[in-house]
């Protein structure tokens, strides 16, 4: 009788130990989620997101960054004084009538000569030199050798003569009026020289008509 009781007691003890081992484990203390660096970092994340969202607004309030003058392109424009005048933003022909050829199209045009109004300096550019006759009714312009168009074709005296004669023959084009008033003809002497015959005595012709003032 006692042995049977001891056997049952031993069995109950083993079952009790097994049930204890299979019980619900204690929950671990609160900690960082998997993949997180830690509680402090996780708590700081919302604040960082808020700061990130505020950065574009702060940058906008600060204005555009300063750009050095030698990296700044300033284009002339008349839009404020002539609303609606710019009707074709893809027009790059500086001889076309109207104001659509103004402003940024100047970046596509180079002159025979330039005059620096700030430094009071006359600068030969696509042309190297010019020479008037004695009574200032004719002038021969010397084209700079080695200049090329954007497609690689050479820039020659023929291009200058063609441009002037085009304006003489097409009075509706931009600049035609002032050329018609001052130029009688333009003819090629050779690849690097063009002879321009004027309508009268005009010692300022090169400076007034063939020079970009900037």
Describe this structure in words.
Strands 3-4-6-5 form a 4-stranded antiparallel β-sheet. It has a 3-stranded mixed β-sheet with strand order 2-1-7. It has 5 helices and 7 strands; from the N terminus they run ααββββααββαβ. A hairpin with a 4-residue loop joins strand 1 and strand 2. Helix content is 32%, strand content 17%. It has a domain of 103 residues: Dipeptide-binding Protein, domain 1.
How big a fraction of the residues is strand? 15-25%
The overall average pLDDT, rounded, is: 76
The proportion of residues forming helix, as a percent range, comes to 25-40%
CATH H-level superfamily title of the domain at 111-213: Dipeptide-binding Protein, Domain 1
Order of adjacent strands in the largest pleated sheet: 3-4-6-5
What is the terminal separation in angstroms? 124 Å
Order of helices and strands: HHEEEEHHEEHE
| Radius of gyration based on Cα positions | 42 Å
The total of beta strands comes to 7
Tell me which CATH architecture of the domain at 111-213 applies here: Alpha-Beta Complex
Largest sheet composition: 4 strands, antiparallel
Report the uncertain regions.
none
- Secondary structure class reads alpha+beta
**CATH fold-level topology of the domain at 111-213:** Dipeptide-binding Protein, domain 1
**How does the overall form come out from the CA principal axes?**
globular
What's the CATH C level of the domain at 111-213?
Alpha Beta
Number of helices: 5
């Amino acid at each position: 009788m006692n042995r049977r009781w001891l056997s049952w007691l031993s069995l109950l003890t083993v079952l009790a130990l097994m049930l204890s081992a299979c019980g619900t484990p204690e929950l671990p203390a609160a900690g960082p989620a998997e993949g997180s660096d830690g509680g402090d970092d996780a708590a700081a994340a919302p604040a960082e997101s808020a700061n990130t969202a505020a950065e574009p607004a702060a940058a906008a309030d600060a204005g555009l960054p300063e750009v050095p003058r030698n990296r700044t392109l300033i284009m002339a424009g008349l839009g404020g004084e002539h609303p609606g005048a710019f009707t074709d933003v893809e027009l790059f022909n500086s001889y076309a009538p109207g104001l659509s050829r103004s402003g940024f199209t100047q970046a596509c045009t180079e002159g025979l000569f330039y005059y620096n109004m700030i430094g009071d300096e006359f600068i030969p550019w696509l042309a190297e030199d010019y020479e008037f006759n004695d009574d200032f009714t004719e002038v021969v312009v010397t084209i700079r050798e080695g200049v090329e168009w954007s497609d690689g074709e050479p820039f020659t005296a023929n291009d200058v003569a063609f441009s002037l004669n085009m304006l003489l023959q097409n009075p509706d084009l931009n600049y035609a009026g002032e050329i018609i008033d001052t130029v009688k003809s333009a003819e090629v002497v050779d690849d690097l020289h063009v002879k321009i015959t004027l309508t009268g005595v005009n010692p300022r012709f090169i400076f007034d008509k063939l020079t970009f003032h900037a």
